[in-house]
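seq:
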Amino acid sequence: MEIAGEQPIKMPKIFKLLAKGLVAVGMFLWAFGESAGRARAASELFRQGYVEEARRLMLESK
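struct:
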């Protein structure tokens, strides 16, 4: 929301680059955590004898 007569604040390019970098790092960490969680779940399923379910969990796409 702008106040009448004020110019919008323009951010320097470095802040935009940092913001994009932070988003990329966040997405990487999210994907890595999901992958690790799936691997751990599949490991437990396999250990309990649910081999086909573990295989399906690791091979299914998101």
